[in-house]
Amino acid sequence: MSKEQVKTRVEGGILEVIVDRPKANAIDRATSTAMGEIFTGFRDDPKLRVAVISGGGEKFFSAGWDLKAAATGEAVDGDYGIGGFGGMQELENFNKPVICAVNGICCGGGLEIALCTDIIIAAEHATFALPEIRSGTVADAASIKLPKRIPYHIAMEMLLTGRWLDAAEAHRWGFVNEIVPADQLMDRAWEIARLIESGPPLVYAAIKEVVREAENMKFHDALRKIIKSEFDTVKALYTSEDQLEGARAFAEKRDPVWKGR
């Protein structure tokens, strides 16, 4: 495998990542390792500001963990490379926005990859499920994240029964931001990516760190930490050129020019 089955394209500050492993865009250890290297590079490249991830073809976003690889002895709890499974869910200091364009079936580990992203756009024919119960495994990351993203009882039904959601229901429960016709999916994802690309990268980094770290903190503790600039990204923001540029642009009634420093 390798990076030939995880295709990338860069335009300006936008990185596009396409998992292209017919038939189901399933992810084995080598694919996950390649994805981890790609997203680490994205995180560490100051020229890149936002990423879009999708699947190859029109049927599958991703079926998740590659059961064929598992059948040959690849361990479900093995080493999936930097960033863990899919390259994002355990990647430290991952403070850049990622948009997920779900182009079809999004199940198991594929749904867990979607949960790692910040905005989810779905094609009208997209479907979602956690079928791990049928293969005798635990949807580990989804068991932690999904009940925090959608109503508890819906998340538990998905985890305990493997029930499928169509795009409309996923949108109704707030898992999906927007549904678009399949032929407009990538255009819409890129439209949002360009909007984010034009914005202040240091602010985005601060938002992502605060949201992530404050999840298990009491409100006043988290707020105090923000006010005192005890988050690294907040401290960097409030001592940056961009912070001054934002204030000057507002005062001068012009669009700011963000430099990310």
Descriptive notes:
- By secondary structure, the chain is an alpha/beta fold.
- The protein folds into 2 domains: 3-197, 2-enoyl-CoA Hydratase, Chain A, domain 1 (Alpha-Beta Complex), CATH 3.90.226; 201-251.
- The chain is 43% helix and 16% strand.
- It has 12 helices and 10 strands.
- It has helices spanning 29-44, 67-71, 109-115, 132-135, 140-149, 152-161, 167-172, 185-197, 201-214, 219-227, 232-238, 241-251, and strands at 6-11, 14-19, 50-55, 60-62, 98-102, 105-107, 119-123, 127-129, 165-166, 178-180.
- The strands form 2 sheets. It has a 6-stranded mixed sheet, with helices on both faces.
- A hairpin with a 2-residue loop joins strand 1 (6-11) and strand 2.
- Helix 3 crosses helix 5.
- The longest helix has 16 residues, at 29-44.
- The radius of gyration is 19 Å and the shape is globular.
- The chain starts with 5 loop residues before the first strand and ends in a 10-residue tail after the last helix.
- The mean pLDDT is 92.
Task: Lay out the secondary structure.
Elements: E1 6-11, E2 14-19, H1 29-44, E3 50-55, E4 60-62, H2 67-71, E5 98-102, E6 105-107, H3 109-115, E7 119-123, E8 127-129, H4 132-135, H5 140-149, H6 152-161, E9 165-166, H7 167-172, E10 178-180, H8 185-197, H9 201-214, H10 219-227, H11 232-238, H12 241-251
Parallel strand pairs: 2-3, 3-5, 4-6, 5-7, 6-8, 7-10
Antiparallel strand pairs: 1-2, 8-9
